[in-house]
Specification:
- Two copies of one chain form a homodimer.
- Residues 1-7 and 204-210 of chain A have low confidence and may be disordered.
- Chain A has helices at 13-28, 35-42, 46-52, 56-77, 85-101, 105-116, 121-148, 157-177, 184-200.
- Chain A is 70% helix and 0% strand.
- The first copy, chain A, has a domain at 63-200: Tetracycline Repressor, domain 2 (Orthogonal Bundle).
- Chain A is mainly α.
- In chain A, helix 8 packs antiparallel against helix 9.
- Chains A and B meet through helix 6, helix 7, helix 8 and helix 9 of A and helix 6, helix 7, helix 8 and helix 9 of B.
- Chain A binds a DNA duplex through helix 3.
DNA sequence: TCAGCCATACTGAACGTTCGGTATGTAATT
DNA sequence: AATTACATACCGAACGTTCAGTATGGCTGA
C-alpha cells in the first residue's frame, strides 16, 4: 500500500541528513545555509536536525569527513593497479570530473575550502591537509613516471603536481559558475593532452626563451 | 598641534569604506562579514556605514565594481602595445600574480565569485560576464598568435583560453589556502612554460595517444 | 572679522528579523 | 512501557537597518 503522505521518516537519519546538508553547503556555503533550510530540504523541521546532530558544526564536519574520505578513496581506488604514470594522471582527472558533474562532491569541497580559509581554522586545516595529500599523491605518480623514464626528469615533480591540481580546480570553478556553457570536459582534456605531452617529452630545451 | 584623539573622520568616506569592505569581503566572504566588522575596521560605528551606503548590498556592489574595473583595466593596460602573443600571455599572468599577492584584489574576486554563484543572481551574472570577457580577451590573443603563425593552429583558441584562466585561478586558490608554503609564482611560471611551449610547437601529432 | 546658517559626517540607541540552539510534547514502533 | 524519531514552541544573541541627535567645518552676509 505504498507510502502515500506519511510523515516521511528517514530510514537512516544521520546519513540522509548529511547528504542533504552537503547539497546545501555545496550551493550556498556554510554560513548562508541555515538549519531550517536543511530541515526543509529533508522534509523535516529544525528539531529533527538537533536530534541527529549536536550542533551545526558537527553536521558540517560530518559532511566534510564524508566527502573528503569518499573523494580520496575513489581517487586512490581507481589507481591501485600501478598503470603507467600518464594513464594514472588521466584517470585521476576523470574521477575529479565525475565528482564535479555527476555529483556535487567537488563543488562542496571547493566551496567550503574557499569559505573556510579565514573563517574556520579547524576546517581550513582539514582542507589544507587534504590538498597536501592530493598534491603529494600526484607528485608520487609524476616521480614514478620520471623513474620509469616515461616522464622527463628536468622538472620539479612537486611543482608539476601543483600545476595539475590548480588547472583541474580552476576549470571546475568556471564550470560551477556557468555549467550551461562552459565545456569542462573539453577544457580538462585539452589541459591533459598538453600537460602529459609536456611531461613525456624529454628535455626539449626549447630554442629561445628569454 | 597635531590631531590627538579626534573622532577620526574619513577624508573620502565612500572610497575608504569601499576599500576596507573589500579587505573584509576578500577574507571572510559577504555573508560572514558583518557591517559591525567593517565599521570597526574603519574606526567608525555601524551608523556611519549607512550614511554612505543604502544597505549592505550597495556596499558589496560598490566593492565589486571597483575591483572588477580596476583589475580589467590593469590587464588591458599592460597589453596595449600588441607585443607577440606569447609575451602577452606571460604579462597577463604577471598582472594576476600581482593582484593576488601584492593586494587582495584577486582573492576578493575569487571568493565572492564562488560565494555568489547560487546566493546572489545579480552578482553572479556580473562575475559570469567578467569571466566571459577575460576568456574572450585571452582567446583573441591566442587567435592573434595563430594568425601570426607563432602559435599552432590545430587547437581551439577558446578552449585554450579556458585552460589558461583555470590554471591561474586554481593556482591562486591553493596559494590563498596556504600562502606560507605554496609557491604561487613557481607554479604559474611552470604552467606558462608548458602552456606557451605547447602553443608554440606546431602540430606535434604526438606518437601514440589511445 | 565674526555671528549665523547649513551641509557633512558621523554617534548611539533602538527595532525587527533571522538564526542557532533548547525544552517539551507526541505519535509510532518495539 | 519504553525508546525512537520526530514536531512545536520558544529563547537569546547577532545581524541589518533606521533614526534622532550632534560635532565640525565651510560659506555668507553684515
Amino acid at each position: 500500500m505504498a507510502d502515500a503522505a506519511r510523515p516521511a521518516r528517514l530510514e537512516n537519519g544521520r546519513r540522509d541528513l548529511t547528504n542533504i546538508a552537503i547539497d546545501c553547503f555545496a550551493r550556498y556555503g556554510y554560513k548562508a545555509t541555515s538549519i531550517a533550510r536543511i530541515a526543509e530540504a529533508a522534509g523535516l523541521t529544525k528539531g529533527a536536525i538537533y536530534y541527529h546532530f549536536r550542533d551545526k558544526e558537527e553536521l558540517l564536519f560530518a559532511a566534510v569527513s564524508d566527502r573528503l574520505t569518499q573523494f580520496e578513496r575513489s581517487v586512490t581506488a581507481q589507481i591501485l593497479p600501478p598503470a603507467d604514470a600518464g594513464r594514472a594522471l588521466r584517470e585521476i582527472a576523470r574521477v575529479c570530473l565525475d565528482h564535479a558533474t555527476k555529483s556535487n562532491h567537488r563543488r562542496f569541497i571547493v566551496t567550503l575550502m574557499v569559505e573556510a580559509i579565514d573563517t574556520n581554522a579547524r576546517l581550513a586545516e582539514q582542507f589544507r591537509a587534504m590538498m597536501h595529500r592530493f598534491r603529494g599523491f600526484l607528485r608520487e605518480i609524476i616521480e614514478l613516471g620520471q623513474r620509469e623514464g616515461s616522464f622527463r626528469g628536468d622538472v620539479s615533480a612537486s611543482v608539476a603536481a601543483d600545476v595539475y591540481a590548480g588547472a583541474v580546480m580552476g576549470a571546475e570553478i568556471q564550470y560551477y559558475q556557468d555549467p550551461e556553457s562552459f565545456d569542462l570536459e573539453g577544457t580538462v582534456n585539452t589541459f591533459l593532452d598538453q600537460y602529459v605531452g609536456w611531461l613525456q617529452r624529454d628535455h626539449p630545451q626549447r630554442a629561445e626563451r628569454r
